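Please check both lines for our workbook:

___
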Amino acid sequence: MSRQVCDELSNGLLANAQTFLGKNVVWLGLDSQKGVVEKSTRRFDFSKLTTQVVQGGSIYQPTAVGSGHINGSLKVTYLPWAPDAGYYVILEPNRGPDIMFTAMLSGCAVGYVRANDGAVRVSHHNIQGTDETDEPAQINSLGFAAGTFHRSEYRSASVKVKSGWYVKKEGYGFVFGVRTGGVWHMYAQAIESKTKQNLQTAASISAVSILDVHEI
């Protein structure tokens, strides 16, 4: 079943990434990287969550297989994150996997620059501030990039009580690279996770909405 889900995810991104990401969420909420990244190529397995996307698609979540997700069915280039750190990967025009994932963005920034030979360098920066990431510093650190995706384009958080319900909303981001015909295209996706909990019965309702998808 995992192989079937991985094929579905891969085929959807490679056929039309913007359409696929307009309905589906690839929820890569992985832990921060520790130390030097030895290999950027990872093999993931995926399953589908029962929670549906408001736009009618699915939420794909990686399943831990082996150490560091190395034995799964879907081979991708993975770009991690770490507090007060910057990581990058080089996407070649004719070598390596056709798909790149970043870890989920909850305050980080991502940018890329394209070389004359078609290779793309993608950078994932996290610069800590007083109580959240320092967006001006991250904008400055990615000043070299041709395309960027910054915290203010996806991040939001709110909590309120309304009509007996506790309502929590949070905005997150993801960046994907997809290679078609030897050319890399970079896509940014902003989503909102909404949880409602009844203050009397403790019953809860969860929903995920896709707020924006665009090529950067």
The chain has two helices and 13 strands. The chain has a mean pLDDT of 91. Residues 109 and 150 are 5 Å apart (CA to CA).
